[in-house]
Automatic annotation (TrEMBL):
Annotated protein name in UniProt: Acyl-CoA desaturase
Residues forming coiled coils: none
Pfam families xref list: FA_desaturase (PF00487)
Domain Fatty acid desaturase: 62-333
Native organism taxonomy: Bacteria, Pseudomonadati, Bacteroidota, Cytophagia, Cytophagales
Keywords: Membrane, Transmembrane, Transmembrane helix
Keyword Hydrolase among record annotations: no
Keyword hit for ATP-binding: no
Superkingdom classification of source: Bacteria
Organism: Cyclobacterium plantarum
TM annotation in the entry: 38-58, 64-85, 97-117, 161-180, 201-222, 228-247
């Protein structure tokens, strides 16, 4: 099966929107990458993670305090992913390539692999958002039905109740299974990954070993199996829940589209930029603190249209994009409240489970 093709643009929306956003940066004389406040935030998050890790492993506090610290460590894992790794892997964290590379590699220390991530996320997800059979983010096996095109199983009748548990398991599944599956099969779903160089193979196995030493071997040696397994599960499950929920609230909703390629031509109805707008939604963009912690990923529309622009610019360019959508009569999807996005996702899962 070949990846589907996008329709050619019959309107000037794509070119016009790119020009409007480009003019913003020219007129403001701003780089499209991050800035000093972003680097400070990244430093605070990374140093906080290191401090908590050392305190938990080498100065293990009372179990009640330790559990709270494990939750905070899980949150910091997600926040580093949102704010540092994500921008770095897209090349928007800095205007210097080596800094972007270092920011992207932060995911390797947390157990995943940036090489696999770039194919899964940058190439596949950003190209074929919500296209069943191609977008690997829709693939939850038989546990969840996220798209109307997916096969329905009896268990899906209850998926709107148990989905948080499934999402919580994502981090463990990602680190200990799917990365290895991609490595062995050389594919992300149906899409082949780029040929790995020797350095990529060395990096893959070296960082997997480092993660096992840092998060399994040393903690078990310092605390024992029972304390480690409880703490590691609390940490991992909370990180997985946060990571998954942020992305699902942007794509798996009542309002978002799940385009199906034409059987005759294997082509999608819309050109790429309109496809992104129809399959993506923002949520709670009026909450600056939430935006700060999520690395602007509540501005998913802006991110999908301009992934090489740092998230610090999303609030500004969102106004330009909204106006362009209004001018071209294109529906811009957004939930003003976090709970509204959550309820939309909940109802989406309930409908797909019963359909």
């Amino acid at each position: 099966m070949a990846t589907p093709k996008f329709s050619k643009s019959t309107i000037s929306f794509h070119q016009d929107l790119k020009k409007r956003v480009g003019d913003y940066f020219i007129n403001k004389k701003l780089p499209r990458s991050g800035n000093s406040p972003l680097y400070l935030k990244a430093g605070v998050m990374v140093l906080s993670f290191i401090f908590l890790y050392v305190h938990l492993v080498f100065f293990t506090p009372h179990w009640a305090i330790a559990l709270v610290e494990c939750l905070v460590l899980g949150a910091l894992t997600a926040f580093i992913g949102f704010n540092v790794m994500h921008d770095g892997a897209h090349g928007s964290f800095s205007d210097k390539a080596w800094i972007n590379k270092m920011a992207g590699i932060s995911i390797n220390f947390l157990g995943a692999n940036v090489f696999m991530w770039k194919t899964k996320h940058n190439v596949v997800h950003h190209s074929y958002t919500n296209v069943e059979g191609v977008d690997d983010d829709l693939n939850a096996g038989s546990f969840l039905r996220l798209s109307p095109s997916q096969k329905k199983f009896k268990i899906h009748r209850f998926q709107h109740y148990y989905f948080p548990l499934t999402y919580a398991l994502l981090y463990l599944y990602w680190v200990f299974f799917t990365d290895y599956k991609k490595y062995v099969t050389r594919k992300v779903g149906m899409v082949p990954i780029q040929k790995m160089k020797l350095s990529d193979h060395i990096s893959f196995w070296s960082f997997k070993a480092i993660h096992l030493i840092l998060f399994v071997a040393i903690p078990v040696y310092m605390m024992g199996w029972s304390q480690w397994i409880v703490g590691f599960l609390v940490y991992s499950l909370f990180a997985g829940l946060l990571l998954t929920m942020v992305f699902q609230l942007a794509h798996s909703l009542e309002e978002t589209a799940f385009p199906v390629p034409s059987p005759a031509t294997n082509s999608l109805e819309d050109e790429w930029m309109i496809h992104q707008i129809r399959t993506t939604a923002n949520f709670a963009t009026g909450y600056k603190l939430l935006t700060w912690f999520l690395g602007g990923l509540n501005y998913q529309v802006e991110h999908h249209l301009f992934p090489k622009i740092s998230h610090i610019h999303y609030p500004a360019i969102s106004k330009i994009i909204k106006q362009a959508c209004k001018d071209y009569n294109i529906n811009y999807l957004e939930h003003e409240k976090l709970r509204w996005a959550f309820l939309s996702h909940f109802r989406h899962l309930r409908v797909l489970g019963k359909a």
